[in-house]
Amino acid sequence: MNFPIEALRAKFPALSLTDKGRRRIYLDNPAGTQVPQAVADAVSRCLLTTNANLGGFFETTIAAQQIVDDAHAAMADFLGAASPQEIIIGANMTTLTYHMSRTLGRAMKPGDEIILTRMDHEGNVSPWLQLAEDLGLVVRWLPFDQQSWQIEEKALAALLTDRTRLVALNYASNLTGSINRVKALTRIAKQAGALVYVDAVQFAPHGLIDVREIGCDFLICSAYKFFGPHMGILWGRLDVIDALKPYKCRCSSDALPERFELGTPQIELMAGLTAAIDYFAELGTAAADGGSRRVRIAKAFERSIAYENPLAQRLIDGLSDISGLTIHGITNPARIGERVPTVSFTVDGMTPETIVRQMNAENIFLWSGHNYAWEIVHQLGIPAEQGVVRIGIAHYNTAAEIDETLESVHRVIAMLRQQRS
User: Fold this and answer.
1) pTM value?
2) Does the domain spanning 5-35+293-419 belong to CATH 3.90.1150.10?
3) Domain limits of the chain?
């Protein structure tokens, strides 16, 4: 399948920026992607032409409400939700998870159990840990398998009891890149009567999400990880969220999803969110030959996965040539479809920050540290204060950028080794 990389890159103004004549290579994507011009235009247009609060009868407030409604409808299409009522939009994933954890905690009692994984971003760990501390809940830890790099179904089944009230799962790791079999894991947890809360922040830029097919109760993601503005989105199954009593102002709406969306919404960012979803739909239009927005989004992911996976394998193969370098995640080409294109590594005798600082100086943007994958680095025995070098590909990156990055990694490691000797 032909991927229109040059036409696609032209939609992202940041990709053409230079610093003192030096190109930029954006491989910091797991922490946040760049945005298409259409997203910035939508935010600007909202602020300049429809800037008003909600609930009035004049033109700008009516237009602002339409932007809010459109954003919920767009995210319903993106996630495969049954209704825009199931879409809760807020500041970010962590804030929304804290809010929902406290809401769910209203129905929990001392001695009830929750299951957390060693694979999750801290945003899907700390809210539940602190809820457990507040309420006297029992926390059961679910490790990932260090051979498969995934959460195994048998390991989850062994932890479930008749006191399990919630299982917090990770769709794809922001450090190892591994994709979990969330549908199978959800089925096991639901059979035990537990609610299932899925963190899909790292998966959302790289694969089609279908919340009804997964069967979970909640799924959360972040727009700024899939080419949109800085905000978080929580999907909740309608019958579940409709029965919940959230913390909110007494006089605010009891309707869905408004009862969960505290305060004045980020209306201009919602305009950008819709534009980000429509960017995916546009990418899939040629391949889909028309169809609904959901169908076109699905085709967009087919195209981007077919483009990203070879880039990820190219990166993995190039890193694997370096002696003393350990990739923490799936490296088998036969399993490339079981990971997102986020690749983390360490090098014997070198701190990740030292490597990253040198590469950042070459205008190759990537990260070092634990990247909030706090439980992963501890399970792997990696010093949390050092973490890993993390390289994250998005579908606007090119093979030439990957090759240049690999050259830099080889050069920097050789230089640092020479300095040590």
Assistant:
1) 0.97
2) yes
3) 5-35+293-419, 40-277
